[in-house]
Structures are given as C-alpha cells and as structure tokens.
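In this notation, each integer encodes one residue's backbone shape. One such record reads:

___
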Amino acid sequence: MTLQEWMDEREMTDALASKHFGRTAQTVWRWRTGRSDPSAEDKAMIFEKTQGRVTPNDFYAIDYTKFDKPGSEPAHSP
C-alpha cells in the first residue's frame, strides 16, 4: 500500500500526517508524491506507525506481476 493510499483511507491531510509521523507537512507531501525518498530510518518509522501497512518496498513503483511465480515456467526463455 502506498503512503497516499494509507492517507486516503484515513482521510488524512499532509498536516495531520505530519503530526502522526513527526515530520513537516512539506516532507510528508514530498514522500507522498514521490518527490523525495524517505531515509531508511524514516521508512522504518513509517512502517511502524502505519502498523506495517506501508512498507519500505511500497516506495518503489515495481510491477510485481511481471515476475515469475515460484514453481512456474519462466516468462522469457533464453
């Protein structure tokens, strides 16, 4: 779940989220919009304060559907 999705579920503004995370509203906006990447420490804090709903991997736009599932045939043969 992205930070934006987590905030939307709670109808949380950047100002409210900034109080929840202990950072400025501008910092939350940068994280939420992808303008900046939270530090490793901030990603751990976000994970903790969202009760694991937003993970460090959620800050990377990776389409996991393109990867093979364990035990399946490879998507591309050499």
User: Anything to note?
Assistant: The CA atoms of residues 68 and 76 lie 9 Å apart. The first helix runs from residue 3 to 9. Residues 3-63 form a domain with the 434 Repressor (Amino-terminal Domain) fold (CATH 1.10.260).
